[in-house]
Amino acid sequence: MAKVAVYNMEGKEVGSMDLNDAVFGVEVNEHLVHMAVLQQLANNRQGTQKAKTRSEVRGGGRKPWRQKGTGHARQGSIRAPQWKGGGVVFAPVPRDYSFKLNKKEKRAALKSVLTSRVQENKFIVVDELKMDEIKTKTFKGVLDNLNAEKALVVLNDMDANVIASAKNIPTVKTTQTNELNVFDVLKYNTVVVTKDAVATIEEVYA
């Protein structure tokens, strides 16, 4: 079992805890991680891009000049793709980019990125994150104490003060255990997790 230090909000070590190898000590599967990121990005695409083909562009019903004898190349319509204002060849149409990834594959991918963060010493556990008021400066000070600059902060429950305090820091994102995903874990350099959140993650994914 991997053992990690537990810190308080002042950045002082106040204990340690063992992490479940079934979640934080698995073999990293880079292919599944790649597929999970692709799926999340693809599922976020609106798919509303649209351009008109030559059959949809207005005008161009009459042949612009006769077939032979003008010295010009033969043309059938002023809305053909080679004309200015013409249609687009193989124009994009609205489509659904999403694809399915099995539940077991998604879980394995998340375990892989969590394991990699633990192995890289970029997984910081804090005993608790509580704030009496919404104060961005105070929350920034907590992250500085933990040496976590670009961080994903994982909470067990929705704490309005913590979430609002972190909202104005562009390099920080807060999330809850039920919203944890592969893309966010990879995007941020450090994962800051409360002890309660670690327990919940182990309960759900072990």
UniProtKB/TrEMBL annotation:
Q: Which gene encodes it?
A: rplD
Keywords of the record, alphabetical order, are: Ribonucleoprotein, Ribosomal protein, RNA-binding, rRNA-binding
Q: Which Gene3D superfamilies match?
A: 3.40.1370.10
Sections of the chain in a coiled coil: none
Region feature (Disordered): 44-78
Name assigned to this protein: Large ribosomal subunit protein uL4
KW Ribosomal protein (keyword) present: yes
Q: Which Pfam families match?
A: Ribosomal_L4
InterPro entries hit by this protein? Ribosomal_uL4 (IPR002136), Ribosomal_uL4-like (IPR013005), Ribosomal_uL4_dom_sf (IPR023574)
Question: What organism is listed for this UniProt entry?
Answer: Maccoyibacter intestinihominis
Keyword Ribonucleoprotein in record: yes
What is a single cellular component term in the Gene Ontology annotation?
ribosome
Cited function? One of the primary rRNA binding proteins, this protein initially binds near the 5'-end of the 23S rRNA. It is important during the early stages of 50S assembly. It makes multiple contacts with different domains of the 23S rRNA in the assembled 50S subunit and ribosome.
Subunit structure, briefly? Part of the 50S ribosomal subunit.
User: Which residue intervals are annotated with compositional bias (Basic residues) in the record?
Assistant: 60-71
Recorded family membership: Belongs to the universal ribosomal protein uL4 family.
